[in-house]
Amino acid sequence: MSGTGTSSPTGLRRAVTGPLLFLFILGDVLGAGVYALIGEMAGDAGGLVWLSFGVALGLALLTAFSYAELVTKYPRAGGSAVYAEKAYRSPLVAFLVGYCMLAAGVVSAAGLSLAFTGEYLTAFLPVPQVPAAIVFLLVVALVNAWGIKESLRANVVMTVVEAAGLVLVTVLGAWVIGRGDADLGGAFTPPEGSSVWLAVLGSALVAFYSFVGFETSANLAEEIRDVSRVYPRALFGSLATAGAVYVVLGFVAPAVVAPAELAASSGPLLEVVRVAGAVPPELFAVIALVAIANGALLTMIMASRLAYGMARQGLLPAPLGRVLPRRRTPGVAILVTTALAVVLAATNELIDLASTVVLLLLFVFLSTNVAVLVLRRDTVAHDHFRAPSVMPVLAVLSCLLLLTQQELRHWALAGVLLAVGVGLHLVMRRLARSSSTSASAA
């Protein structure tokens, strides 16, 4: 069982148990997006939000099979970029996979800043959204720069709060249904003016944003005890748990509040709390703000560390690999990723940013799902999870299906980001070649 047992003297400590991994993935998946995006989903799918969540869960599980196989097969090689390098032997493809994850993180943080400064914040403080979003991103950057230990301590508290918020709104919605003040037909109201299944699929694309995050658990492969047994259980268990919460929430919300009202609100779950009347809306608004802030903080921690790591490998400009002397955090990477998020937040289009995140991650998932099949001929000495061959194939088809639902403006934004990535890769290769030539001449 090489690579799956105890820690090696030179490797990372295998301290992550099954329950800890389950909670890590669940906290990443039960993210802040649902606090704002359930209204956008109701605008697409009417009252069939619960069905859209179910479809999105099924699509996420297909790709999860590929991660379960690759993480347990290569427990000392984490991340989609590494799998791409092993499968395709192309530095450009491997770079673009890592870059897509980086770009998705920055775009996601921009979207969450707009969610933070919507109706959840204006319940207390009537401020213009874009300037408030910029201030929010700067505060997140300061916490990120303060230190990783301090950031993760804050994350533990905020994860508990955000999970409690989703449970609270579900219980309040069920209470409204139980007292007879809800319209159960609202949860079955189809969208107007479009095909039901096309509308549900389009809404599932938005719902998919709420499930992404599980892929980051691949980076813990070297720190998980008995990874071949523990990782698949924790991965599928956490996705199923999050999916159950989302499906129930997707049923309760349009039953309590008309889908059109949910769609018109930038704080849709706040509307459910207002109808229930048992909890002050301001209290729930605080919970939602904490949840969204936690999502943004986790996202920017990931994005800044990924930029730092790619710079240390010579894949991005070297200054991104510099750290703050006292705090030992990647200061330049935090500054640059925050600046990019600020520019994107200025667009003031939450749904466009969320859809672009999904588009970028679909490229990553496509690469990973194909890599599973390509790497089947590569055998390893230890036992590992093996996905049924049909699962990666269905996962590839599901990614292609979701890509067809993307609008032209989302392709345009993703295209610009990818073009910047290709340009950076070419510049870095040229610099590396010049450096190598100079060293040889010397």
TrEMBL record:
It holds the Pfam family AA_permease_2. The keyword Membrane applies. The chain crosses the membrane at residues 20-38, 50-71, 92-116, 128-148, 155-176, 196-214, 235-257, 283-308, 329-347, 353-375, 387-404, 410-428. It is a multi-pass membrane protein. The keyword Membrane applies. Keywords: Cell membrane, Membrane, Transmembrane, Transmembrane helix. It is found in: Cell membrane. PANTHER family: AMINO ACID TRANSPORTER-RELATED, MEMBRANE PROTEIN. This is Amino acid/polyamine/organocation transporter (APC superfamily).
